[in-house]
Amino acid sequence: MNRARLLVFNAALGPLDYRVPDGMEVEPGSVVIAPLGPRQILGIVWEPERLPATAVPDSRLRPLLEALPVPPLREPLRRLIEWTADYYIAPLAAVARMALSSGAALRGGGTATEYRLTGHEPARLTPQRAAALDALQGEQATIRELAHIASVSEGVLRGMVNAGLLEAVSVDVDRPYPRAQPDHAVPLLGADQQVAANRFVAAVDRAEFAPFLLDGVTGSGKTEAYFEGVAAALRAGRQVLVLMPEIALTENFLSRFASRFGTAPVVWHSGLKSTERRRAWRSLAFGEAQVVVGARSALFLPFARLGLIVVDEAHEVSFKQDDGVRYNARDVAVMRARFEASPVILASATPALESLQMAEAGIYEKLDLPDRFGGAHLPAIETLDLREHPPERGRWLAPPLVARLKDRLARGEQSLLFLNRRGYAPLTLCRNCGYRFQCPNCSAWLVEHRLSQRLACHHCGHETAPPATCPECGEPDCLVACGPGVERIADEIAEIMPEARVALVTSDTLTSRERAAQFVADATSGAIDVIVGTQLVTKGYHFPELTLVGVVDADLGLEGGDLRAAERTYQQIAQVAGRAGRASKPGEVLIQTRHPEAAVIAALAAGDRDAFYDAETEARREAGAPPFGRWAAIIVSSEDEAEARDAARAVGGAAPHLNDVLVLGPAPAPLSLLRGRYRYRLLINARRSTQLQDIIREWLGPLRFAPGVRIAVDIDPYSFV
Ligand code: ADP
Ligand code: ZN
């Protein structure tokens, strides 16, 4: 080939053609550097016939500058990039960029310089250096990353290098990972586990596309079952991707993996240091790394020979990305498996309706683990009607729940209180004039965080110190907290059971892997009596002494009434309930609610999963909602309110008039101001068979907007705010 067509990472440019100079070897997937005007840009050589043609004659082509020393992106990944861009109506360039997620990895191996503490501690230290010494115990990273970890400037750290407090270490960027051993510690599986494991092993050995839905109650041993599929891939010398929703929470998973395979897997998430990203990316691309456990972005890693994909907790809404390329990692994982000709296992105790429907239609093979492993029983679930048993004034826990918490404490057992709300209180107002503290950038209330003494916006991250006087009426010490967040529930426990050891578990407190590991160690050793947590505590944990789960407000998730509110509530409560009674002691779950008769709550209390899914299926079928119909959202935004409104009207005015397609809106979004942008939404509902993407492309393609306007298309939306 001496003419190469490049996919470049600037969507405005489109594909560009270059001449391949003599002596340079490129093929589709090669990553190259090319000249553009006076600049140099990164590009991926693509099959020319798959990109729009360019008109530059051969004689005027500029030569490529360099082919980078990494394996070409393989065809299955190239096809996945195209599919994702096409399905989610995203620029090809934006999707391709997700595959080249480590710039450093594109350069050859070598060494990098990292820094760590020397252990030398002088008698006198500036407060900043003292804080850095504290924060950097056990850390080794670049100066920039250490500055971030210790919240000090890079200058402070350079000073510490000169003073002999930090030392440079040279690390081999490509040092290999320890090898996982498929037969390190093979468990004896239960009968149902064995059936599932055999199917996975057979599918891995066939090396064909095969989608599975592993549907098993919490504690049924899904992980052990799919580990046999992982073992089969390792034996065959193929790589495995395990996608997880919350990477900070995989401490437990990593140690289980290490017990089974003799070493931890490679971890991939957005918080990795640049050297770790580079090492993981290259190791995968060269076919050395065997198993990667990662958050959704791991989906676009350049595996050399992928043999199995597992999506654990596959129902989790966090697999849906809601900015940039708005893809659903669960669905894209199935497509990647198809292109790679590999099996894919979706594991869940509460599968998404969409996944169950695929199983029903015979497209996914469903494997059931109906019983808890080792004979542990599912916990007894009861509802606690808050209208009948109101909590005391200014409190949020009803007397029967308080009684049982005290009972657990007396018996030396653990309790868990679940409330999916960070901070102390969701709304703060002035007791004198009623002024409500609102975010200046968003149409949202500021949430009081007492631990950090801030008022914070959970949408844009805006924070202020609580003011001494009301900004409206000037009243001093006027703040009143309205409603509970987890911090307030932890306070309540401290009041009613002062001797209890309480752990608060939210993304504000489990800020690092070390802290997460410490929490798991404390909870396992019995050093914690009551865990108070957000959805962070609903998944994955296995604490043998935990026998009581209290759901503080089951009605919370049902408010707002978006399409999946009922399903999400069901999943969350079923997951958190699954934390109780996982070992020999029986578990009990109390659900506080004002609507015990609501279908979701009643199904949970009755332990009747099928009743819930049947009712939900019927409701969706009637509404033409997924999986029976298709939804898409168009979000129009601008910093200028009138500009946003005009653009939204223009989009609405150009809406197609088709029998099978219903367009709702434009209407101001529920979050009508977000990060300083005014927002309007349109919702499109279509029959399943409709080529919805084509319709939207034709609809929006000819429209032109003011430069400040942004149009985002969300296919299969999860968020309706
Ligand atoms: P799930 O993922 O379905 O909630 P887990 O995989 O966490 O369930 O299993 C629950 C518990 O049972 C874990 O502590 C796990 O180690 C244990 N377990 C599951 N299967 C086996 C097995 N075959 N042999 C020994 N322990 C097992
Ligand atoms: Zn905000």
Lay out the secondary structure:
Elements (H helix, E strand, L loop, with lengths): L2 E6 L7 E4 L11 E6 L2 E8 L19 E2 L7 H13 L4 H8 L11 E7 L9 H9 L7 H8 L3 H9 L3 E7 L18 H16 L3 E7 L5 H14 L3 E5 L7 H11 L4 E3 L5 H12 L5 E4 L11 E7 L16 H12 L2 E6 L4 H8 L4 E5 L10 E6 L13 H13 L2 E5 L8 E4 L16 E3 L4 E3 L6 E2 L14 E4 L3 H11 L5 E4 L7 H13 L4 E4 L12 E6 L13 H13 L10 E6 L5 H8 L2 H15 L5 E10 L2 H13 L7 E14 L2 E11 L4 H9 L9 E6 L6
Parallel strand pairs: 8-13, 8-14, 9-11, 9-12, 10-11, 12-13, 15-25, 16-23, 16-24, 22-23, 24-25
Antiparallel strand pairs: 1-2, 1-4, 3-4, 3-5, 6-7, 17-21, 18-19, 19-20, 26-28, 26-29, 27-28
The structure holds adenosine-5'-diphosphate and zinc ion.
* Spans of at least 5 consecutive residues with low confidence: none
Strand line-up in the sheet with most strands: 10-11-9-12-13-8-14
In the CATH scheme, the class of the largest domain would be Alpha Beta
**Structural class category:** alpha/beta
The total beta strand count reads 29
Helix content: 25-40%
What is the molecular shape? globular
CATH H-level superfamily of the largest domain: P-loop containing nucleotide triphosphate hydrolases
Helical run tally: 19
Count of discrete structural domains:
6
Relative strand content: 15-25%
Taking all Cα atoms into account, the compactness measure Rg is: 27 Å
Biggest β-sheet, characterized? 7 strands, parallel
Hetero groups? adenosine-5'-diphosphate, zinc ion
Q: Report the mean per-residue pLDDT as an integer.
A: 92
CATH topology of the largest domain: Rossmann fold
CATH architecture classification name of the largest domain: 3-Layer(aba) Sandwich
Termini distance? 49 Å
